[in-house]
Specification:
The complex is a heterodimer.
Chain A lengths: L2 E7 L2 E8 L3 H22 L7 H7 L6 E2 L2 H16 L9 H6 L14 H5 L4 E4 L4 E4 L10 H17 L4 E6 L3 E4 L9 E5 L7 E4 L2 E7 L16 E2 L4 E2 L5 E6 L2 H13 L11 E5 L6 E2 L7 E2 L10 E4 L2
Antiparallel strand pairs in A: 1-2, 2-6, 3-5, 4-5, 6-7, 7-10, 8-9, 8-17, 9-16, 10-13, 11-12, 13-14, 14-15
Helix pairs in contact in A: 1-6, 3-7, 6-7
Chain B lengths: L9 H10 L20 E6 L3 H10 L5 E7 L3 H10 L4 E3 L2 H7 L5 E4 L7 H9 L3 E5 L6 H14 L3 E4 L6 H11 L6 E9 L11 H7 L10 H18 L5 E7 L12 E7 L5 E7 L7 E7 L2 E5 L4 E5 L14 E4 L2 E5 L4 H6 L13 H14 L8 H20 L3 E2 L9
The chains are: A alpha+beta, B alpha/beta.
């Protein structure tokens, strides 16, 4: 029987499904991986005063801030995807979220140009000093789903370092990361949605992220269509119903599924990523010319929670 | 010790601030970058879980440079090398000190039963010492460390973090000034879900890494979780228990361990009041918190947050009109916000809810300030010994099944 461990972090539930010989050792390793997720939560929680993100926001407009290697690596990924996606993925949406009433009561300085605060060029990374600098006061990182993916990547690294290689990890059922397949199987099958004929992804040493425009209706700004924001229009996106991305890392998968729903083109992500988009509520489309990690049958999926089928 | 919060007429200050010219200087505890006034070169002894947490906080101090670190575990040294850019790793403290004789201070984050040697060695080498809590695993080691600290002429701080925590300092000022009047009873809990087992591939490494589960050396939950809380409550009330009873067992993790994973203890004070303490590794409900119940109110503390619940017949203070409140079922708590007056004057009261740094940060900050600014040490070796001695008594009561009396001599450093 696989061992399942779980924890609450980043406003969602993370779960690890582990296979191996000795349960006490598996549990010990799994707990170490969960601890890594909790550390990531502590660092990247935009809502918590004591997170690294809040610290960076307080230091905005000042000198660079030295970062731990994990946060620095994640911000590098953010900047890279922001450029490749032509700004449809943006890690600096904090001020926009405040403006739309999706964060606390903090008021933006009316004289401050929102576009300036959202400009990714204002996030300066120094690889030599392992530091980051937000160049203008008021700038604020909000990593959203990519933080969840990055936490899964870190947890998976702990598992591998400690010799646990057969595992499936997921965060909030919207991001899954697979290591070696379950015994006797070729891959972990992850179903994208609750319907019988929902698309399935086949994962081995890869990650899947699904972003949906309508998965959090309760938190939408009035009149908007999605909690995923189109940074170029400063409002909820209306571009796609959903997008699923398979990538080597969960952080990359999360960043690109967000960017696709926000409005980037399927040609924007680098080669090697598997893309599945849902332009309307009753159709899924494979992006042409991409590796196919998916099995699709006709379906009417409108909401995309993942259902892991480990064994 | 200088206490920013014990002064006084909060109403007057708040009213003046709200109506008058507001300064835009944020309270010290919210400052993005601490100012120590001098550069410090430090070494880190032990780079396991706690050492890693220390590494993360050190990056926030521009004037502190981590020069070197050491650990006997090769894998942990390798992991630290990624996190401590520019610092050099060593297998022993002696090697580290030999290579870097100019270090100003050492941060000791070894397993509890291995605190004594690095503390004594560091003090002998004329280094300031920050030693993680509990101070040691035995009263003999506690006294040896305390004796070394007393004669070294260097700053020695025990890592009991409540004393450095801005929310706790504020809450203490309320309790000490009579806001909840007479303290009737106290309770504390530390609940988490974790087997406490660290993965290790071979028996030697397993024994070294799983010291918390080794009955020969561990202080169990009482030492690793409870001691911090005992210290807070002693600090708040100024009194120490005279008797302790404890019970518990292995209820959550029946994996062959011999160390209890669930513990209850009752600590009785000379005046008859009691502290009820519970800890478990099998349930997370309500996490870690402390409660002081008085005749006029209750203070609830949860490390980054704190609340004051007033009895209906408690006198109302003017500043309460502006206070932030939070509902807990039938009770409404006033959120304890450090430097609330200053924040309120700037319309930033809510920015003070939840500390901007983990508790560890404030422990380190006060340690560094004691070195560079000659500020009083927030938790001396002697204070560290007392809280640790209580934890040792709790653990003894648990393992023997016998109530333990606590005399003044038990808490003495000699």
């Amino acid at each position: 029987m696989p061992l399942r461990l779980a924890c609450q972090a980043m406003g969602t539930r993370f779960e690890l499904v582990l296979a191996g010989q000795r349960e006490d050792q598996l549990r010990a390793v799994g707990e170490l991986a969960l601890e890594e997720i909790q550390i990531a939560h502590g660092r990247w929680n935009a809502f918590a005063n004591d997170s690294v993100l809040s610290h960076l926001a307080r230091c905005a407009g000042g000198p660079p801030v030295e970062l731990d290697p994990e946060t620095f690596d994640l911000l590098q990924t953010c900047v890279r995807v922001a450029k490749q996606s032509r700004g449809f993925f943006n890690p600096l949406l904090g001020p926009l979220l405040h403006k739309l009433g999706l964060r606390d009561e903090t008021k933006l300085d009316p004289a401050e140009d929102l576009g300036t605060l959202l400009d990714v060029k204002g996030l300066v990374l120094d690889p030599k000093g392992h530091s980051a600098q937000l160049t203008r006061p008021g700038m604020q990182l909000d990593l959203g789903a990519i933080a969840k993916g990055a936490a899964l990547d870190l947890a998976a690294r702990v598992l591998v370092d400690e010799g646990v290689t057969c595992a499936l990890l997921h965060g909030g059922t919207s991001t899954a990361l697979a290591l070696d397949p379950p015994p006797g199987k070729d891959a972990w099958q992850v179903v994208i949605g609750p319907e019988k004929n929902a698309p399935r992804a086949h994962l081995v040493h890869s990650a899947l992220s699904v972003s949906a425009a309508n998965s959090r209706r309760g938190s939408l700004p009035r009149g908007d269509h999605s909690h995923i924001l189109d940074p170029h229009r400063s409002r909820g996106t209306r571009h796609l119903q959903a997008a699923a991305v398979v990538a080597p890392s969960a952080a990359t998968a999360d960043a690109w599924s967000t960017a696709l729903v926000a409005g980037c083109l399927p040609s924007d992500p680098p080669q090697g990523l598997g893309l599945l988009t849902q332009p309307t509520s009753d159709s899924w489309l494979l992006a042409p010319g991409r590796p196919n990690f998916f099995h699709i049958e006709p379906c009417t999926t409108t909401t995309p929670p993942l259902t892991a089928a480990p064994f | 010790m200088h206490d920013n919060h014990s002064s006084p007429d909060r109403r007057t200050v708040l009213m003046a601030g709200a109506g008058g010219a507001a300064t835009q200087i944020l309270p010290d505890f919210l400052a993005a970058r601490p100012h120590l006034g001098a550069d410090l070169r430090v070494g880190l002894v032990g780079v396991g879980r706690q050492g890693r947490a220390i590494l993360a906080e050190l990056g926030k101090f521009d004037e502190v440079t981590l020069v070197a670190y050491c650990d006997t575990d090769e894998r942990r040294l390798g992991s630290a090398a990624r996190r401590a850019k520019g610092a050099k790793g060593y297998a022993t403290q002696d090697a580290m000190l030999a290579a870097h004789p100019d270090l100003d201070a050492l941060l000791i984050a070894t397993p509890t039963h291995l605190h004594r040697a690095p503390c004594e060695g560091g003090l002998a080498a004329a280094k300031h010492i920050y030693c993680e809590s509990p101070l040691a695993h035995s009263i003999e080691d506690c006294r040896a460390i305390t004796a070394a600290a007393a004669t070294a002429g260097k700053v020695f701080q025990t890592g009991y973090q409540g004393r450095a925590n801005p929310v706790y300092k504020l809450a203490r000022s309320f309790v000490r000034s009579g806001a909840i009047r007479d303290v009737l009873s106290m309770s504390a809990q530390s609940n988490q879900k974790n087997s406490w087992r660290t993965p290790a591939s071979d028996p030697v490494r397993d024994k070294a890494l799983n010291w918390r589960l080794d009955p020969e050396v561990t202080l169990g939950l009482a030492g690793e979780l409870g001691a911090q809380q005992f210290d807070v409550l002693h600090w708040f009330t100024g009194k120490y228990p005279v008797r302790v009873e404890a019970s518990g067992g292995i209820l959550a993790w029946r994996d062959g361990r011999e160390v209890a994973d669930t513990v209850q203890a009752r600590l009785t004070y000379k005046d008859g009041s009691q502290l009820s303490w519970n800890a478990t590794l099998g349930n997370t409900y309500n996490g870690t918190q402390e409660l002081l119940m008085g005749t006029m109110g209750t203070v609830r503390l949860a490390w980054s947050h704190g609340w004051l619940f007033k009895e209906s017949d408690a006198p109302t203070q003017g500043w309460e009109v502006y206070a932030n409140r939070q509902q807990f079922h039938n009770d409404e708590g006033i959120t304890l916000i450090a430097d609330a007056t200053k924040l309120a004057s700037q319309g930033k009261l809510k920015k003070g809810i939840g500390l901007p740094h983990p508790g560890l940060y404030y422990g380190l900050e006060t340690f560094f300030q004691s070195i560079t600014q000659d500020k009083d040490v927030v938790c001396s070796a002697e204070e560290g010994l007392r809280a640790t001695a209580i934890a040792i008594k709790v653990q003894t009561a648990l393992t023997t099944g016998q109530a333990q009396d606590i005399s003044e001599a038990d808490l003495a450093s000699k």
